[in-house]
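Q: Protein A?
A:
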Amino acid sequence: MTAVVTTLKTSEIIYPSADGEPVAETYDHLYAILTTLEVLKQYLADRRATVLANQYLYYAQGFPKLRVAPDVMVIFDVEPGGRDNYKIWEEGQVPKVIFEITSPGTKSEDIINKKDLYEGIEVEEYWLFDPRGEWIREQLRGYRLGEDGYELIRDNRSEVLQLRLEIEGKLIGFYREDNGEKLLIPDELASALQAERQRAAELEALLERYRDQFGELP
């Protein structure tokens, strides 16, 4: 397999960062993309890694038309933070994990063209998520790079991310393998924060009642 195609061209080449196309077909697809992006960003916040969504991945230096825009991609051993686009030859790292939020309209592209491309540039894991279950009955399907190319993942484990993936309605639920904890989505984080504030307020009220009865705590 070849990770990067190079060229000897030295003239300045423009690598666009946008194509004017919508990010996703439906609200369900968009929400799944943004939620996956945010959950994985929080999970990898203390790692030398970045998570990008719907941004061009350029894999052939000198050929700006050879590009793809993964819905979500995770790249390790690079500087954290966003980019307008991602060029493999500049960063020196191929994405380790790619998620495509798929639909019947993108089925052929996702299961044939993108799968062959990601396998060719040696993306270690490729996940297809169908939030509406329109063509993937189990909604989630993953592939892991083996000696002979991509092999179907049968246990919904991401070895690269060390996470277990579960279907939760129209979203992917991510669970840490080291302690079993779920990676909370933004709505769940907000609820957890509100609950924590409520518990803190209740504790403060309890302490205030104690002070009224017994004075200050020793």
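Q: Protein B?
A:
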Amino acid sequence: MSTEDRVKATMKNVEGKAQEAIGEVTGDPKDKAEGKMKQTEAEAQHAKEDIKENVKKAID
């Protein structure tokens, strides 16, 4: 996995956590939901990259 992809996924996770927190403070369910969705997308990206790394290690 490239470091760049990990950084992007981590930034998306941070962005999602911030958006979810803003939704909590403001009481906006849309912000909360979108924040959680971004966090889920980031987790999926990390999982995808973990699989790529494991396959590469198995091949090497």
